[in-house]
Amino acid sequence: MPILTVLAVNAAVSAVAFLALWAVSLRTKDVSFIDAWWGPSMALLAWSTLLQGPHTPHGLLLTGLCTLWAARLGLYLLWRWRKHGADRRYVAIFAHYEKTKNWSFATTSLIIVFGLQAVLGYVVALPVQLGQGPGPLGALAYAGAALTIVGILFETIGDAQLTAFKANPDNAGKVMDQGLWRYTRHPNYFGDACVWWGFYLIAAETGLGAWALPGPVLITVLLTKWSGVPTTEGKMKKSKPGYAEYVARTSGFVPWFPRKG
């Protein structure tokens, strides 16, 4: 099947899924659950691509790894939403657009939350859409798979360590600087970036997949410049008295040994 047809079908499948979830948000008046759909929405694109063509080694590898990553991330974020309820970020977003544009809940939910996430996710997922071409797995694909697995482990361990730290009442008001968090302030975001650069390496080996470069570039920008690091650090600086000292000694993204002094 021509790749443009595959991409068009994928866009339609993604749009239907996001519109269905948008309809759910109209009933619940809460969009926070959309975070849990971020990973699975990209696995859906990988599966949609796989089912439209021959099951190539690269396609099976990309779809399998993407499903593993998406299932772990989706379940974790779903658990977090169920435990903590509505995300204050979204509450602030709705208040902003109601005040500045007089938008209703439905309009803001459709355009700013579900629509924007659908577009961003589609671009980020380009490696799992463009990288399922024919050919045997080579060194680049194996290197990409290894990088992706390292990324999944980094995310999983980092999230588990932070969850355990927060569950201890003695740590209230303290800064998490143990385990992976001793070497990077954002092991979960770093792991996420590794996952998608790994997918890109697998995809690039197929030729057409090399054109998927905007995907890992976009997720890296989102994590380091927009919704990831800036949002988290802005909140932490206001709520954690010792966070400035932690920032001074700890790498901001790529893991490295703590600075002394």
Task: Provide key terms for this protein.
11 helices; mainly alpha; 261 residues; transmembrane
The shape, in one word, is globular
- Cα distance, first to last residue? 60 Å
Number of strands: 0
Give unreliable regions as ranges: none
Arithmetic mean pLDDT:
95
**Oligomeric composition of the shown chains:** single chain
InterPro entries: UstE-like
Transmembrane segments: 6-24, 36-53, 59-79, 103-125, 137-157
Pfam families: DUF1295
Keywords: Membrane, Transmembrane, Transmembrane helix
Could you characterize what this model shows?
The protein has helices at 3-28, 34-51, 57-84, 88-100, 105-124, 126-130, 139-167, 187-204, 214-226, 229-239, 243-249. It has 261 residues and is mainly alpha-helical. The protein has one domain (3-249). The longest helix is centred in the middle third of the chain and has 29 residues, at 139-167. It starts with a helix and ends in a 12-residue tail after the last helix. One of its GO terms (cellular component) is membrane. The chain crosses the membrane at residues 6-24, 36-53, 59-79, 103-125, 137-157. Keywords: Membrane, Transmembrane, Transmembrane helix. Pfam families: DUF1295 (PF06966). InterPro entries: UstE-like (IPR010721).
Summed up, what is this model?
The protein is built from 11 helices and no strands. The termini are far apart.
